[in-house]
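Q&A FORM
Asked by: J.P.
Topic: structure of Trypsin-like peptidase domain-containing protein

PROVIDED:
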Amino acid sequence: MEVAVSCLDENAREVIRPIKRMVEDEFLSRPGVIGVDIGEKVTGGRPTGRAAIVVYVCAKGPDLPQQIPQDVAGVPTDVVAESIVLHRARITRTNDEQPVVAERHPVLRGGISIGPARSFRVVPPEVPTAGEYVIAGTLGAFAVTRDGERKVLGLTTFHVGCVDDSWSVGDEFVHPSRVDGGVVDADQVAVLDRAALAGSVSAAGLRMGNRPFRAEVLDVGAIMGSAKAVVGSTVRKRGRTTELTYGVITSTDSTLRLDFGDGIGVRTVRDQIRVHSSDRFGDHGDSGAVLVDADNFVVGLYVAGSGSTGFANPIEPVLRQLDVELLTPGVPESRRPGPAA
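REPLIED BY: S.T.
REPLY: Here is the structure written out as tokens.
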């Protein structure tokens, strides 16, 4: 797969990075600004070949570009209209509605549907109509805690695993999600064990139950470990909604303001991985999928997107904040609590 997209030289990024960091919080405080990044300046729809501080805005109105200086310390800026949203799926349920028909996997792998067993009361303006909603996301991969217990956890995002500020350790999870027809109790596969929402991380770890699992991602294969995201490299993700998609890493410098909803509010996440695809890279329900490189090393945890653009946490801070390491086929069976893979 080829994607026609420019990936700037790392030397140019190194020069711009401290300048971007110096101004990004001030830019993010301006109305309508939702992100600051490093990318190629585009003028009149044509790439210029010049590295720039890219400012994402929710709507490129007539006044907003004038709020951003044309350059900062000699580095040009570029204002880009984007609609970047968290990619969990959330629907309301009535007695007359039928669940989405989803994949059911007797042996769990990464890349499949998962969601909380409980429902959530949501009101406008978050949703059109107040009511009880259920959530769907993606079980990305498996990890093992670094403590003596060596618990096996399934990785997903904070906004899938916790949803709002009413979460607690022990919350139950089902596969498939309730959005996809999962049944409370009958389809329970895990409980919430830990979570993190800070810095560059929106993540949760779900302690797996008695359902068999394998240390692999559906349609991708066995996970070999973790690696650093590299600008210009091709990655894949397998999500609950869009399934297997491909893209190219175009930045590891994205800073975003994301709305986590009532009780959590808008949070800033930094140093996010930006992925560009020739088609739709992700959609609602894909949050929690892992980004995997050509050698099946995990480089990121998918959180949000906008059409052909996706954003992911870098995987190393995720593992560090959850205090886990990725589970791979090379981990000895004696170190695998719970079901054998």
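FOLLOW-UP: Residues 332-341 have pLDDT under 50 and may be disordered.
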